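Quick start: what a row looks like.
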Amino acid sequence: MTLTSAPRLESDRLALRGPEMRDFDAFADFHADPVRAPGFGPVYRRDESWRWFATNIGHWHIHGYGYFIIADKATDVAMGLSGIWNPDGWPEPELGWVVFAGHEGKGIAFEAATRARKWAYEDLDLKTLTSNIYGSNTRSIALAQRLGATYERTYDNVYMGEDQLWRHPAPEALT
């Protein structure tokens, strides 16, 4: 059972859906990984992951958007997160993504982020999106570029410190 009012979005291989309790273990494992978690946020203990997971659920209720679970369309197994994030102190709505261990290198983040961005522009009527990326996160920078985003500036992210802001093409530039 979904914990939010998130719609179910689909792409060729993926379903983007609201978070469910059965997704928490995969998320907590990701956020406990000292190699994989940085760039999305700090390495978290399980109780801290619980708070972030609950924050995402609240984010959906406050904004009407948040991070979807990226799930395999055939099996519904959680493979990562993608969606629109805009907590207090954020410069503006951000298109974000992360893929859990074992699911990298398959184009999942690109496919999910492309679908989430389309939803944000068409259904939420957002006019612009950014992606906030650590300068050392070369894989996310490459994905942002593949999505057509361009580097705009470096800024002090209130939660993560120095971050790069990458600007996505406006909706009319994608049609």
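That is the whole record. The chain has five helices and eight strands. The chain has a mean pLDDT of 95.
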